[in-house]
Structures are given as C-alpha cells and as structure tokens.
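Board notes (copied after class):
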Amino acid sequence: MGGTDDKEIPPTSGSAGHDDAASESSCYATEDEEDVQIHLGPKISIKEHLEKDKDDESLRRWKEQLLGGVDVNQVEEVQEPDVKILSLTIVSPGRPDLVLEIPDSGNPKKPWFTLKEGSKYNLKFSIKVSNDIVCGLKYTNNVWKTGLKVDNSKDMLGTFSPQAEPYIQVMPEEVTPSGMFARGNYSAKTKFVDDDNKCYLELNYTFDIQKDWVK
C-alpha cells in the first residue's frame, strides 16, 4: 500500500468508487490499463493440442503434465476457458484469515473490509478453471482516495489448465500505509483478465484503513 501524505499508497485489493473512473464498469481494457493486444492464431481444442505433437514424447508428456487430470475425451472440441474467482482472502500475521466471498453482483457492500494501518498482509485468491487452458491470467488493481488515483498495479498470475480443485494463488507481502493522511476510505477496481484481454471478473468496492483492526 504505501506511506503517509508524501508517499504514494501501493495496492490493496479492491473496491467500488466515488470517482467516476473507479465506478465505471467495463470488462474491456482501456489504453491506460492494458497493453496493446497481440492477435493470436485460431483457437484449437485440448485434444488437438495433444494430437499435434503425439510423436514428440517429451513435448507430449509436458502437455499432459500441464493438463493435470483432465479427461480430454470428456472435453468438447472447442471450448472457451471458464475461470471463476471463488474468494479473496486477506492473510495478516497473528490474525485469523479474512475470507471475502465474491458476491454474484460483483460489487461487494461498502466497505468490503478494513485494514489496520502499518500492518503486513498477503492477498490469497481461490481460482477455479474449467473447460480449457487459460493463458496469461493477470490481476489488475486501481485504487483511489478522495478522487485521486493512488495506485495502479498489474500482476501476472500465470497459465492454468482446467482441474477439479481450485488453484490457490498467494500474492507477495504488502504493508498498509500509516499516519493521519493514510487513514480513511478508499475505492478500487480489481480485474482478472487473460492474454486475450477477456475479463473473468471485475470488482468495484471500497475499503477502510484505520488505526486498529475492527473488533
């Protein structure tokens, strides 16, 4: 997250917005949020991927390892990957994990959570992938305070094959800002998008930073 009045406040997770830029809901990238798109070749099915290199033993084994326990005979010829973000968890040393379920509306009630100033924490995502491989899944986060953007971050989560159990993704440790000017209400927009700029989830919500944890 960041510092006090003279430091930029780094990422937390999420939020709705007082600022128009924060509240606009769009699952399509804008110029200042995403990189220029790369136009890829035609999409082929998992089964075709495996059959394409069936004579190359090492490459075939690598692909099977990437696919995990997926039964390719049960997968349709061509399907779009289905990615669901099941929950977001805030993990802070010495405290119970704060599990935030993702509402169906995609817009949690305000404020969604409260963080203590100057505290260390990690974000942990539970991600379910079905149907096909999702390539280059990214987590983007924009944060505003009193209408001013204080953070704009993007993290690559990776490429995931479909599997029955959800993936657990833990982000690097962060520290919330501290001081009088750091306390208060924040708004944010969080997205999960892939290499094709397909958006699987957009969250608009608010959160607070206070002198202590909520009891």
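Comment from the instructor: Residues 1-41 have pLDDT under 50 and may be disordered. The beta strands are 82-91, 98-101, 113-116, 120-130, 134-145, 148-160, 167-170, 174-175, 184-193, 199-210.
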